[in-house]
Design brief:
alpha+beta, about 25% strand, 4 helices, two-stranded antiparallel sheet
């Protein structure tokens, strides 16, 4: 069995406004391309597509889900856009 984690893509996102949650502050994050195992880890019965995406984004950025829930929409949109690039596969050369 091969470990695919050494070839995962990443995206660096700088927030328009630093994200504050509890005692921590994040001016930027690095998002890692998700694996199916990441999707399964955040899958919960009864959640909406938006909740699923937010949970997966939080996981891939190393952020608490509650911090993502409280972030500004303009910064969440940056994360969502980066996340969606991972879903389409690598750019053609």
């Amino acid at each position: 069995m091969t470990d695919n984690t050494d070839t995962l893509r990443t995206a660096h996102i700088t927030f328009s406004y630093p994200l504050h949650f509890g005692e921590q502050t994040w001016p930027e994050v690095t998002m890692t391309e998700p694996l199916v195992s990441d999707q399964l880890a955040v899958d919960e019965a009864g959640q909406t597509n938006g909740q699923f995406e937010a949970r997966l984004i939080a996981r891939q950025c190393g952020l608490p889900f509650e911090a993502v829930r409280q972030m500004r929409t303009c910064d969440y949109n940056k994360l969502s856009t980066a996340f969606k690039t991972f879903l389409s596969g690598p750019a053609s050369k």
